[in-house]
Design a protein that fits this description.
About 0% of the residues lie in helices and about 55% in strands. It has no helices and 21 strands. The radius of gyration is 32 Å and the shape is rod-shaped.
Length: about 250
Amino acid sequence: PRDDGIVYVKATTRGDSTTSCGGIPGWICNSVMFYNSGPASSIIVSASPSVLDADGLDISEVTAYVEDINRNPVENGTDVEFRTNLGSFGGEKEITVGTSGECVLSYAHVTYTSQVVNLDEYCLDNQVAEADITAQTEYSSDMTIIDLLGTICSAGNSVIDAPDQITYGLMFFASIAVKDAFGNPICNSLVKISWSGTPDFKSTNAIGIASFTLTAPPPDTVSTMDYLRFEFEFDGDECSKGKSIEFIP
């Protein structure tokens, strides 16, 4: 008997003088082969493409190939669990048995959709996050990675946090959350703040925020209205955003 899970059945019967089986005249024969599938014991997962925009729209096709202990296909309907730390899945999560050339394969296929992130994990280039994609059956699991990329800076998505009014001579805080055109934070972007006081420079942190400590001017030294201007850049692209502030007695 075979020990690889493959079943081979051959049937032979008498024919006539026009028939032959295996070179022996007067016989008729035919055969069939099938798999005696066992439980899923190995899995390999892949994603194509493996680099996406972190925009909540870009997609990748994720496929998990599953075999039993004899490296044969497993049954239709075998469950595969897909997990990720970022993004979402859509599509069938059960095994389908199909063919690729002369090979018989059992696989589960889902569509992964990226997401906008709240934390820039890298702070060096336009990659903002890494999505870990895990596919698991009852006895085994495998993982692959999809890189999520940010894009150019966006004044419209960036948010200033500063008071509308401040008393002359008092210290106050102003910050900006720098975002890209998808809405992801931009880390390690140098931000310049300009106003009637001394300009200052700060770099954004992993959530895209640059914070400044400022002191309102003494009374009667400047106009009652001023304008805080934040200038920042990412990957050679420059952006700016501002906010009016009023000084009061």
